[in-house]
Amino acid sequence: MATDAISEYYRRGGERTRLTASGVGRLEFLRTWDVLTRVLPPVPATLLDVGGATGVYARPLTAAGYRVHVLDLTPEPGVTAAVGDARALPVTDGAADAVLLLGPLYHLPERADRVAAWREAARAVAPGGVVVGAVISRFAFLLDGLLKGFFDDPGFPPLVERALREGRHVNDSSGRSYFTTAYFHRPEEVAAEAEDAGLTDVQVVAVECPLWLNDDRLDALVGDPAATETMLEVLRGVEREPSMLGASGHLLGVARRP
């Protein structure tokens, strides 16, 4: 795993505001939050937020009454956090009532490492506890590149071809930066990896569904409370529909420790 490149990407600071500002990022946050409110145990449960150093979920979860501890390779100021690797968590067995992996799986190109992260989450959560892992869709890089005009760069199509073929993304040596070292999942891979780690009852949820592709309308949907509630209600009804999964920008795997 290219930790230097990944750390540099997050040090640049885009993730600090991306999920709370507007548009696509705000849609991702609202939908992820909506799923969390339905699958997490009631307050004051103990949550382990692995890879959540910006605190974008830790802060509101704490405000809601949860006991949240963040573990991250590069914890940021302002968040109660400790240094930790998702593949080897420095916690005792069953230490948490729920474990969140809302970022680490993005940056583990090797399947064995992703399964290790799921397995460590399964070890860290109490029996019957929930683990929620976020991944990026295999097709998000291609669709995002079309919307943002990246295909005008002759170096971009080979990156997309590799991502579609292998799921892997690594920026080339040209100095251009499209995201950072990452793995993009096919929908069926999410449950398979979680189950290989010993988790059960795995459900795969489309976060944005195809709605993230309509950027012109998103600010209105996420900026007006009534429109937001209608949007969330509608997307709840189709979030597990298989035909929605591949077109979503992100997916959530929701699983339990037996």
Automatic annotation (TrEMBL):
SUPFAM superfamilies associated with the record: S-adenosyl-L-methionine-dependent methyltransferases
All copies of domain Methyltransferase type, residue ranges: 48-132
Keyword terms: Methyltransferase, Transferase
EC number: 2.1.1.222, 2.1.1.64
Gene Ontology biological process: methylation
Origin superkingdom: Bacteria
A Gene Ontology molecular function term of the record: 2-polyprenyl-6-hydroxyphenol methylase activity
Pfam families: Methyltransf_11
Cross-referenced InterPro entries: Methyltransf_11, SAM-dependent_MTases_sf
Protein name: Class I SAM-dependent methyltransferase
Species of provenance: Dactylosporangium cerinum
